[in-house]
Amino acid sequence: MSQEVRNLEPKQLWNKFADLNAVPRPSKKEERVIAFMMEFGQKLGLETIKDEVGNVIIKKPASPGMENRKTIVMQSHLDMVHQKNNDTVFDFDTQGIEMYVDGDWVRAKGTTLGADNGLGVATIMAILESKDIKHPAIEALFTIDEETGMTGAMGLKGGLLNGEILLNLDTEEDDEIDIGCAGGVDVTAVRSYNEEEVPEGSVGYTITVKGLNGGHSGMDIDKGLGNANKIMNRLLFDGFENFGLQIAEINGGSLRNAIPRESVAKVIIAEMYDEAFVFDMQEIINDIKFEYKTTEKNLIIEIVKSELPSKVMDLGVQEGLLRAIYAAHNGVYRMSADMENLVETSNNIARVIVKDGEISIQNLTRSSVESSKFDLANALRSAFELFGCEVTFTGSYPGWTPNVESPILDVLTSIYEKQNGSKPHVVACHAGLECGILGTNYPDMDMISFGPTIKGAHSPDERASISSAQKYWKFVLEILENIPMKN
């Protein structure tokens, strides 16, 4: 199936993407893709460096006639989000992504595609390999672990790069040029609880929420999508309030940067309430499906009788858990007052695990304003601490402050308008780009971000537009030709 993708235009780009997608590259397990990229640079005879955290830097001299242009850094991240449909059998640690063409889209079979940020990586690889593309001196920067902590960007030391301009190729709408982004912090709440014997006269049920769209917890947070953890909590809360439902296990969501698509809970109910419980639950399910009829057409909520579990949560902790998750904010917290339609601050209740006497609730809080980020993080902390959780803030990274007077922004907007007959949208995004972090050690670097159209990132519905990739490739080539002269 990758051959079908390799035949697409521009072939330089799609062939490098197919090469990359043959290499397993989950976040925090990038050893194989690092080795792949090191070998790629060395085979080209280019200076190839791996820094102490695993970022790869490949340096290519300017093409003839371009030596007097400013040195540029072209940057993308090597890792990808690993999500798959529940019924898809796939091992991300050992298998390459299985791609296919669907009209104007390249998709993967039941998994994330890795276009985020594989198309950016492939772009840089194609330019490094080319012999006929005009370009200034290039420092190609391939960072690791962007998706689960940005530790690659955080670990990049000053002095390794000399470029004056950074082109980050990690945005997902081809008519947008990004000049700012949100920062983030992981908010994690944990506590233990006592398990109790299952009372006599109980029946077991498994409640499943699935079929949600999921998506990027930054870029898609304002789209009114369902959060499986919130929906599950609503069902459990009602069952507890009205019928004394008790929880044995909850397994909801997966990665912090993905809106949770699925949640499964094992519960018990007193046999005397069996019929009334099922009837009441069905009414709530109907209400929830009606609420999400526009944004979540494939939502499935199932309540099925199952074997009795051996243990359940004690009711005191259970009540605190359900009320805390109900109180905890999920979704958009504040819109920007300075940029139209920009989400300033949000939270994603990404992962809820209840099992064997331990509770873990994992959130990703984002904001383009540092004080607002911690305002929301402290609101979450308060909700969880009130029911006895230990709450930690980890992995905090800064946002990227927009610079509307950026010289490279003038270059890109001029080229875009000339090629397309319309102005691009100059925006800041609610995703976490690495520019803000990289700017900490390279404060004088002029930074910009752009990319081809990618939909459904961080979900198995991820897809990359073929026509957009062609538009984007043409844009990249002209940008390289028009990098400003050295001062």
Automatic annotation (TrEMBL):
GO terms for biological process: proteolysis. One of its GO terms (molecular function) is metallodipeptidase activity. Its EC number is 3.4.13.18. It comes from the Bacteria. It catalyses: Hydrolysis of dipeptides, preferentially hydrophobic dipeptides including prolyl amino acids. Residues 208-293 form the Peptidase M20 dimerisation domain. This is Cytosol non-specific dipeptidase.
